[in-house]
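Appendix B, Record 12. Input sequence as logged:
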Amino acid sequence: MTHLPHDRYCDEIDRQVQRFGAVLASGADLSATVPTCPDWTLEQLVRHVGEALRWVELLVRTRAGEDVPVAQVPGASGPEARADATALQAWLAQSGAAVVAALREAGPAAPVWSWSGDFTAGFWARRMTHELVVHHADAALAAGHPLGTVAADVAADAVDEWLQIVQFVQRTLPDRPTGELRLPGRSLHLHATDADPGLEAEWLIQLTEDGISWRRGHDRATVALRGPLTSVLLAFYRRIPPDAPGLEVLGDRELLDFWLERASFG
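Logged structural output:
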């Protein structure tokens, strides 16, 4: 599956960091629980995102050949505990600008360690784009803000990447819950109802004995999830329920729930 252009990912990282900043600038309660990540407050979510940005910036800038402990990443801890929103916003903006600069300088083919088997800066540009898209939704939910709409090309690519991650976890961590997603004869269909036809924002996911297989396109399946592309993406990432307004589940709802409970990073 073709990825988006490297500069497109860099542009989107910058945009998503700005959207995060807007949440912080709105006066949102930093102590509010993030409903989709209930172990975190909004402040902890922001710190998690900033730490990840700083870590990836160091990996890419130094062309790291192996993992680098976060404790060795300058500035990863962010402002002092219980810092105000202005300080957190400034730190997050600096973190985002630094990683975008490193990614643009490196280009997509530069060799960089990753956990995925794709040892390029391009992997990190794509991963951080979708990390930010999903965590911005978390921040918006914690602050009581509208979720907004994810650009169609980014949303569709995020679905692709999530399916590739599930495949990767099935191969490398067979004892994890993703290993249970081997149900020959069962399948899921995702159907974005608002995307440009040229984008082909539909997916068929088959739960084979050897692990999941998938392709873009329309087909019949055991269960289908239909609705606007952003909503389909966020439901697939368990940020909103599959029966949220605008979404429709057709067929075996239990199979969809089974998938959502087990599809994970590991």
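The mean pLDDT is 96.
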